[in-house]
Amino acid sequence: MTLPLFLQDYTLQTVLAGAVLLGIISGVLGSFAVLRGQSLMGDVLSHAALPGICLGFLVAGTRDLGAILTGAFLSGTAAAIMVLVIGRTTRLRADAALGIVLGLFFAGGVVLLTYIQTTQGAGQAGLNSFLFGQAAAMLRSDLPVMGGVTAVALLLVGLFWKEFKLATFDPLYARTLGLPVLALDLALTVMIALAIVVGLQMVGVVLMTAMIIAPAAAARQWVDRLGPMVLLSAAFGIAAGITGAGISAGARGLSTGPLIVLAASAIVLVSVLLAPGRGILWRALRDWRAARRLEAGRVLLTLDRLARDHDAPGFRSDEGLLRAYHGTPPRRALARLEAEGLIRQVPHGPDAQRHWEITPEGRARAAELPTGAWNA
Question: Is residue 190 within 8 Å of residue 48, measured between CB atoms?
Answer without folding.
Answer: no
